[in-house]
Amino acid sequence: MQSFVEAVCHRVGRRAAGFPLLVGALALAGCVTINIYFPAAAAEQAADRIIDEVWQLKSGEAPKADGPAAPQGEAK
Amino acid sequence: MKAARPFLILLLAAMLSQAGAALAQANLEINTPAIAALQRSMQQRHAQLVPFYASGAVGLTRDGNVALRDANAVPLPQRQQVNALIAAENQDRAALYREIARANGRPEWETDIRATFGQRWIEKAQPGWYYRSAGGTWVRK
After folding, report:
1. A with B: how many residue pairs have Cβ under 8 Å apart?
2. Do B112 and A38 contact (CB within 8 A), yes or no?
3. Would B24 be classed as within a structural domain?
4. Which of B37, B46, B50, B96 is buried most deeply by CB count within 10 Å?
5. Neighbouring residues of A12: CB distance < 8 A, sequence distance ≥ 6
6. For residues B101 and B20, what is the distance between their CA atoms, to the nearest angstrom?
7. pLDDT for B5-50, tens place per residue?
8. Domains: count for chain B
9. Is A23 inside a domain boundary?
């Protein structure tokens, strides 16, 4: 890659000064687009929280920041 | 060598921004007014749906919906009510999946979110309730 860039820059001369920058910008855009993955674990947690709320499931799972002060009341 | 330096810097910046994005995605945003409203609506409807889940009239599908499983399990005068409940519930669920995707700035995640919910609803369903298996047959939990 490096030698390719050098070769092209050498051949085209000054006009090619912005070429590596262009390649870099393209690489950046490519990386960002490709790398937005679906966060499956986070989605599962979010789903569980919503389902517990909708179905009123207050199972033995430890409540996060509620503390022991709210034994039966609605969490929200 | 010098010519490649901006490229390397940009590449590094790209990698760092990916790491930042990955960290930002550790949790999904679900605390929006729209999502809260849908949750309330579904919570209220749930009380009406429970008897139908229990009788096997209504079951859960893998794509995160509910469906009529056995119309014969519903007394004739209630059939319209069940259909209305199912339609309303599926409408809320679709809106919920869409809203979660939107709240996180990723509308294209809607399908994945729906699939995740599909699994979790079934996982958390009570024993005796029905869900549709991958093969399409109804299974009693």
Report:
1. 104
2. yes
3. no
4. B96
5. A19
6. 19
7. 766 666 666 665 665 555 555 789 999 999 999 999 999 999 999 9
8. 1
9. yes
